[in-house]
Amino acid sequence: MNASERGARQDRQQRLKRYATWLAVGLSGVACLVLTGADPAKLFDRDGWRNASDIMGGFAHPDVSRDFLTRVFELSVESLLIGVLGTVLAVVLGIGLAFFAIRVPDLPDPPRKQPMWLRHGLALTRWTARFALGVFRSIPEIVWAYIFVRIIGLGPGAAVLAIGLTVGGNIGKLYAELAEAIDPRAVHALRATGASRWAIFLFAVLPQVSRQWTGYALFCLECNIRIGTILGVVGAGGLGSEIALSIRYFQYDKLATTLLAVLAFVVVLELVSDQLRQAKMRWTLTLAGAGTAWALFKLDIPWADLLTSQAPPLITFDHLSPDMPFISNVAKQIGDTLMMAWVATLASAGVAFVLAPMAATQLMTGSYLIDAPRPAGWALWLRQALKWASRALLQITRVMPELTLALVFVVWVGGGPLAGILAIAVHNIGVMGRLYADVFDEAEAGPPSAMQAQGAGALGTFLFGVLPQVKARLAAFTLYRFEVNVRATAMVGFVGAGGVGDALNTAISLFHMRDLTLLLLTMILLISVVDALGDRIRSRLLNLKEQKT
Question: Is residue 248 within a helix (H) or strand (E), and if so which, with residue range?
């Protein structure tokens, strides 16, 4: 067998391996759907259609009375201030812990080594900071909100603190990873002068990561305001309280008005956020300071109750003896949570993979070539319509929080895993579509322009010019969203949409402190394992891509 035959055989084996992998992934999604007991046919049965038509009837006749619009506006402002103050708290917490979690590179040949006690002390501090970040981000915002409602009472304070802790854990982890990925030469230069860790952070690390940190903080602000609109379902203020009341009393006209307000609210916020990313950082800092001052003045948060509250502790480590029936039930719910997140991730990834290329300007209405002929007439009109329809669908699905969608789908198809899967999948269509579109836009222009020069259409250019460059990054982003969806699945269970959240809700509602403690420890372990596996798989995927290029 000559070299060309061996090469052709290896190519066939690689293709078969890829096809087998995709088949296994698809079958795993089907198997998980069956094992959770979710029945998609409920979407189309008579009761489901009647419930869906009632909800859609509310959108046809939203409540636009003056009193209700005034209430929605006031709650929207409250949700905005919750998101702003929660984001500021999360950034402060994240930066504070990231400062201790960062591994500062040493000189290749330092003139003197640090004492052993100092090295071990720094390692212990770094591990403690990373452990704290892991604990904060492992517990969903809604669980923190429940806990803080018990400590400081109903109102926006519980939502602010919940967002600050969970998002602070996410921000701190990402900030530390970005800081460790900087060019080490500036750090080495300051190390050589004997500069302190604080000086290295200020003059070597911060200048290289400040733009990335600011961009991610703005992205978190968008997400946190969405979160601020839903935590009201547990009494933590914002638009969520109105959403929960509207669904509870079947007032779908009010529900429609509130959801449309959320949609308009987040769209405007994203436009402002895009402008801030392009502006100088002082504008972002100025607006953050003004928003924080307004929130502290407007929101009635009893900060002192955090130290003086007489509420009984929600977490206890007494009598944590093994309870086999309880452990068996938790294991089943953890399995359901993982399977629901996996099915939702695969479903949303499939839809986003179709919509994201149609939303890309260069593929649909532009060209990778310079002075290339543009489509005209009805062809151009059709492509423009597809592009804007895809963008609108991605936008609408992205701005609707999972918990809000879960409340709607619980009304539509009833409680259980199907409602949770649908809620997470619909929201992630928009999120993953945006991530995929960003990846497509960052593809090198060489291969797709060569395809277009040979007369290839939009589909051929995408499949053979763009997709081969970015498929590893698409897989990495999909795995990242699966990790996020595991936490989201735990959250939607609070409204009866399946998963371990149902057990958490029961433990908190019935004051079963031992069960709650065991469930929270289980959640921390689960999220830590999923994050660690996801990080390792993403690293391998991206390393394979670099080796091929």
Answer: helix 239-248
Whether 323 contacts 404, CB under 8 Å: no
List the CATH code of the domain at 76-300: 1.10.3720.10
Going from N- to C-terminal start, the domains of the chain cover 16-55+318-548, 76-300
Q: CA-to-CA distance for 206 and 516, rounded, in angstroms?
A: 40
Rounded to an integer, what distance in angstroms lies between the CA atom of residue 178 and that of residue 9? 41
Report the phi/psi class of residue 238: left, alpha or beta, with left for phi > 0 and alpha for psi in -120 to 50: left
Find, among 317, 120, 88, the residue nearest to 221 by Cα: 88
C-alpha distances in Å from residue 302, one per residue of 152, 162, 224, 291, 474? 7, 15, 21, 19, 44
Quote the CA–CA distance of 439 and 475 in Å, as a whole number.
Answer: 11
Residue 4 has pLDDT above 70, yes or no: no
- The structure tokens 């290289």 sit at 208
Q: What is the pLDDT of residues 394-446, one digit of tens each?
A: 888 887 778 778 888 888 888 888 888 999 999 999 888 887 877 777 677 77
pTM summary value: 0.78
Helical axes 156-180 vs 141-152, angle rounded to 10°: 140
Is domain 16-55+318-548 in CATH 3.100.10.10, yes or no?
Answer: no
For residue 437 the two structure tokens come to 């579109």
Burial of 414 (0-12, 13-18, 19+ CB in 10 A): middle
Q: Which sign, positive or negative, has the C-alpha torsion 23, 26, 30, 32?
A: positive
CA 482 to chain centre: 9
Q: Do domains 16-55+318-548 and 76-300 have the same CATH topology?
A: yes
The Cα–Cα gap between 140 and 420 comes to 15
